[in-house]
From TrEMBL:
Keywords: Lipid-binding. Gene3D superfamilies: 3.30.1180.10, 3.40.50.10170. Residues 1-12 have a biased composition (Basic and acidic residues). The keyword Cell inner membrane does not apply. GO terms for molecular function: lipid binding. It comes from the Bacteria. Residues 1-22 are annotated as: Disordered. This is EDD domain protein, DegV family. Transmembrane segments: none annotated.
């Protein structure tokens, strides 16, 4: 297996590096279907390029300064603003016209259709904007809800890209994305639920539960929503439990795993090592990336996230 990344002591299959931000990647001429996703997939740049994905960026505003995530506003800037308790951090979806321009360009370049795969409708209005744009163009554009974000979105987008590269039609590419959605689990730990509460991503009652009991929360995605999965007493136990839950999600399957972090590269490397030790040869690929500014704005510093994609 080709191993790429910056750490010399990587386990087989680990690929480290920065995630792709707001820069579009592109469509390969001759493919019957083009695949679009958004910047919250946090795909390693080489993967997005190899699968000919077009990436539409979301926007972040930090103290009035607006920019595309990753290439104009970085997760480090967001983490710093949140850490200094400057809460003037917000995010916004792409406008429908941004999607419409991307779809028209891809169709003009020769695609017969477009499959557009995006972060959960229960987390963002991004998919609503994509659907509005698709409705203007017609049935040549199909929009898929990944019911997640990060590589919970990235793995379905990659599956769609692989199906498109094989020459599958619009229905086949859509099916590849949806099947991968069903085989992907997203689990994560945050130091505090306060930022998720402020952004409306969890209920005030859930946030209060964690604060009142002084527990460390482990969350997961259920039908596109963030749901409390487990509670432990310390951060160290939370990370151990996170690995346990990822191994449980893998079952007996061969898996690909993504490890996301926010300003926590060392912690992410330790999680990747722990997973490699537990999963052994069933771990096919492991991608380690820092999340971008949009998700950073809603989770705050301290995020550790594991995304498990079962290959069968």
């Amino acid at each position: 297996m080709d191993v790429r990344g910056s750490r010399r002591d990587q386990p087989p299959g680990r690929r480290a590096g920065g995630a792709l931000g707001g820069a579009p990647v592109g469509y390969r001429a001759g493919m019957p279907v083009a695949v679009v996703t958004d910047s919250t997939a946090y795909l390693p740049a080489e993967l997005a390029g190899a699968h000919h994905l077009t990436v539409v960026p979301l926007t972040v505003v930090v103290d009035g300064a607006q920019g595309r995530e990753s290439d104009e506003i970085t997760p480090a800037e967001v983490a710093r603003a949140l850490g200094q308790r400057r809460f003037a951090v917000s995010t916004s979806r792409p406008a429908p016209e941004q999607f419409a321009r991307a779809y028209r360009r891809l169709l003009d370049e020769g695609a017969d259709g477009v499959v557009s795969v995006h972060l959960s409708a229960r987390l963002s209005g991004t998919i609503e904007a994509a659907r509005l744009a698709a409705a203007d163009i017609g049935d040549r554009v199909v929009v898929v809800d990944s019911r997640s974000t990060g590589m919970g979105l990235g793995f379905p987008a990659l599956a769609a890209g692989a199906a498109a590269a094989r020459g599958e039609d619009l229905a086949g590419v859509r099916r590849a994305a949806l099947e991968t959605v069903d085989r992907t689990s997203t689990l994560f730990y945050v130091d505090t639920l306060e930022f998720l509460r402020r952004g409306g991503r969890i209920t005030a009652a859930s946030a209060l539960l964690g604060t009142a009991l002084s527990v460390k929360p482990i969350l997961h995605m259920v039908d596109g929503a963030i749901v409390l999965r487990d509670k432990v007493r310390t951060a160290a136990r939370a990370l151990t439990r996170l690995v346990d839950l990822a191994v449980e999600a893998a079952g007996e399957s061969d898996v690909d795993v993504a490890v996301h972090h926010l300003d926590g590269a060392r912690r992410a490397a330790e999680l990747a090592d722990a997973l490699a030790g537990r999963l052994g040869g069933r771990l096919r690929d492991c991608y380690v990336t820092e999340i971008g500014a949009v998700v950073a704005a809603h989770v705050g510093p301290g995020l550790a996230c594991l995304v498990v994609h079962c290959r069968d």
